[in-house]
Every structure is written in C-alpha cells, then in structure tokens.
Design a protein that fits this description.
Belongs to the UPF0060 family. Helices cover about 80% and strands about 0% of the residues. It is mainly α and about 110 residues long.
C-alpha cells in the first residue's frame, strides 16, 4: 500500500475517533446522567478533531466527503466496543459501499 494512502487512512481514523469521543462524552452527561466534567475532555476532543481536519492535504470539501466513509466504519466499531451493540450485516454492507465511494472521491480522477 502506498505510504501516502496509509498516512491518509490513519489520519482519517484518528480524526473520526476524536469526533466520536467528543460527541459521545456529552451524550453520557445528557442521556446517562454522568458528570458534567465530561464536557471538558469532550471540548478538547472536538478541538483535536478540528485541528486534525486541517492536516489533510487536499481540498477541504473533498476531504470531508471522503472522511465520511471512514467515520461511518469507525462509528460501527464504536457501536460494538463502547455501546456493546453488534452491528448488523446490512450495517457493514452500507459501510463498505460508503468506503468505496470515499475511495473514488479521495483518489479517483486526480487532475
């Protein structure tokens, strides 16, 4: 695998984790009655998410679109690990379709 592609995929993964954690912590506070102190690491995680988005080398709109596919797959893993819910086969099929679209957006038709 091309080194640049691997670096981009890892950056997408870290970006997705920062976004998911930044949204999950307020969810714990609002929906599960956890401590409001969770808002501090949530804010830090969302700030990290925004910073990581600036590290992507291509046009922002294209990167956001391609990142969406990786976010979906990461969210399904999060569903299993953090929430204890087993994703359905249709979830994985949909995620695979999104990853195919993300790959076309990210690496297809470069001018």
């Amino acid at each position: 695998m091309n080194t640049q592609i691997l670096k981009t995929l890892l950056l997408f993964l870290f970006t997705a984790l920062a976004e998911i954690i930044g949204c999950w912590l307020p969810y714990l506070w609002l929906r599960q009655g956890k401590s409001a102190w969770l808002l501090l690491p949530a804010a830090a995680s969302l700030a990290l998410f925004a910073y990581l988005l600036t590290l992507h080398p291509a046009a922002s709109g294209r990167i956001y679109a391609a990142y969406g596919g990786v976010y979906i797959v990461t969210a399904l893993f999060w569903l299993r690990v953090a929430d204890g819910v087993l994703p359905k086969t249709s979830d994985w099929l949909g995620a695979a379709l999104c990853l195919c679209g993300a790959a076309v957006i990210a690496w297809g038709g470069r001018a």
